[in-house]
């Protein structure tokens, strides 16, 4: 089966063949760092993380570049409200973003490139656009002339007359209402840099093309971002880059991710359903979240609701239990068991094939996930019947590969709990036992609830109270 990806540019699934045989350059639009990262960011960046992991698993040498928009109107606005320096504000939220990504086990990016650190490259690109007649100057402002670039609108599938309906940045001095900003002149007391056109700062779109040209040159393999960025942002990127370098296409495959709804509604601050990554991580760990996102195709909208997340938790448990039961069996068992069930051996291979086929079909993670779950169930059943150690090893290896691609960690390590936490939980349980002896059920229940919110479940039996961590 050929490896195919959906290309927004053609609207079809195309065979994936990088520009340079085995090397893949991927760029993904990073966040504008003016606020806490939310569930929409988690969705987008986890999708590309899985894509990156899978490309590497398939043997491609991938360079994954992400920009960080730390110069932008929203940042400046927010900094003004808080009376702090805009670059200070963006630096803090940038750090927080990286911490969030780390908490989600999103480790596949090779380089985060900050816009503020690439201003000379942006000025240089604008200068060349001016020289080539693709841009014009109105006092200290520079605009891109879309009438000089007939391909404008191709990615979003819009005709020139439809484009006219969008008045992106109203400015009566523009030749065409759709012309977009490359450089904005600013007062000296505002955030800015020196340029041949005076004090000012770059427009949003030029940030990305200056960064990608710096690291990748005029053309590269994959450009990602959420679907809402197709127009005008990605359309503008194509226009700028192809106009300046003369090389087409800028990007071979445009891959876009779908939106996140919260309980059926679009997420927005005004609706009060805005969920930050930090808030979610208090309720669900990164494994559960990653399974939750993998259960929808990256292009489809996904609904963030308790039921879907509980399902994800259940699915994660199924996989994790099978893995750990198999791993324990392997640790205990040194001799070969009798069960060399050839059907089961066939099952291993067929599950592997199905998993790869699903991922090769435009990263179809929901199908790949269902293969993982069905395999986990088979593995658990197999391990219970006098299994052969080599077959268990083979199964564990395969499940390990699947989990690595999905970025989930199923390994339960015996020493996972720090000793201090263990002692502390033991102490709390002793206090609860004393409360129960005093018939103080209220206190006992309170302790149980508190432990449960810390994802520690307890079980009372005639031999005493046992506790364990739940995922
Ligand atoms: Zn971008």
What would your notes on this structure say?
The protein has 471 residues and is an alpha/beta fold. It folds into 3 domains: 4-278, Rossmann fold, CATH 3.40.50.620; 314-406, Up-down Bundle (Four Helix Bundle (Hemerythrin (Met), subunit A)); 419-469, no CATH class. It contains 15 helices and 16 strands. The strands form 5 sheets. It has a 5-stranded parallel β-sheet with strand order 5-4-3-10-11, sandwiched between helices. Strands 6-7-8-9 form a 4-stranded antiparallel β-sheet. Strands 13-12-14 form a 3-stranded mixed β-sheet. The radius of gyration is 27 Å and the shape is globular. 37% of the residues are buried. The model has no long low-confidence stretch (mean pLDDT 91).
List the helices and strands and how they pair.
Blueprint: E1 4-7, E2 12-15, E3 23-28, H1 39-57, E4 61-68, H2 73-82, H3 86-103, E5 111-114, H4 119-131, E6 135-138, E7 141-144, H5 160-163, E8 181-185, E9 200-202, H6 204-216, E10 220-226, H7 230-245, E11 251-257, E12 260-262, E13 265-266, H8 277-283, H9 286-294, E14 302-304, H10 306-332, H11 342-360, H12 365-383, H13 389-406, H14 419-437, H15 441-453, E15 456-461, E16 464-469
Helix pairs in contact: 1-13, 2-3, 4-6, 6-7, 9-10, 10-12, 10-13, 11-12, 11-13, 12-13, 14-15
The structure holds zinc ion.
